[in-house]
Task: structure prediction
Amino acid sequence: MTTKQLIDQIRKKQSFLCIGLDVDINKIPKHLLEEDDPIFAFNKAIIDATHHLCVAYKPNTAFYEAYGIKGWQALEKTINYLNENHPEIYTIADAKRGDIGNTSSMYAKAFFEDLGFDSVTVAPYMGKDSVEPFLAFQDKHTILLALTSNQGAFDFQTLSVNGQELYKEVLSISKSWKNSENLMYVVGATKAEFLADIRKIIPNSFLLVPGVGAQGGNLQDVCKYGMNDSVGLLINSSRGIIYASQNLDFAEAAAKKAEDLQSQMAVILSQ
Ligand SMILES: O=c1ccn([C@@H]2O[C@H](COP(=O)(O)O)[C@@H](O)[C@H]2O)c(=O)[nH]1
Result:
């Protein structure tokens, strides 16, 4: 999906919500464990109940890799279900990859070509030649970790390098990479106070913002400092939506949580 198509969807749905599909088998309703593929059954029910309220889904691959071949098959079925039934939905493989060039090329092929995701999260730590193989894919986005939502973000990302914080170096330097128009960045919702400065460096880029919901990030603060003329934000919530209920009504409960965020987004977009 192109950036323009994503922006069109945001305007049409009045939503910049991304729902995280982080499926923990111990947290899904017990009756689903009788299904052939409980993880996919859970995702399908969540997608069916929420697709009109969000513009993106973000499965974190850890939650699938943890279940071996069955987990990977559930991931593949989930992305196929989305691409076949909801091609207007933007898809993010939250895999946090990045390696030497030829290995990164294989990661990119796996997520963009084989699985068919629109984007993948990538760690910037190994530098330009580890990221450019992802950027080479047309109409696919590489979402670079900039300032993450966790407390450990302060261990390295805010250290001073060349006179500015490391995450700012990541933002500034990555802008010069080949096909940098295919970059987006991760900034945690828990770091909303940093967004004004971040926007000075990357005014036009899209940001994937996890941390609303279970991690306590605030939607209004993120929008106040992080929104640009094209909205420029994908706000992710995973546990806060998909585990709203662990009973038979789980999908309806997830839809209610998603609707609550979407209606706040519609108000913000109308201002
Ligand atoms: O800085 C980051 C980068 C990625 N994540 C991921 O986003 C979701 C958040 O889940 P919640 O349940 O809404 O807290 C999860 O997949 C993380 O691995 C992040 O939280 N922060």
In short: The two ends are 27 Å apart (CA to CA). The first strand starts at residue 17 and ends at 20. The chain has a mean pLDDT of 98.
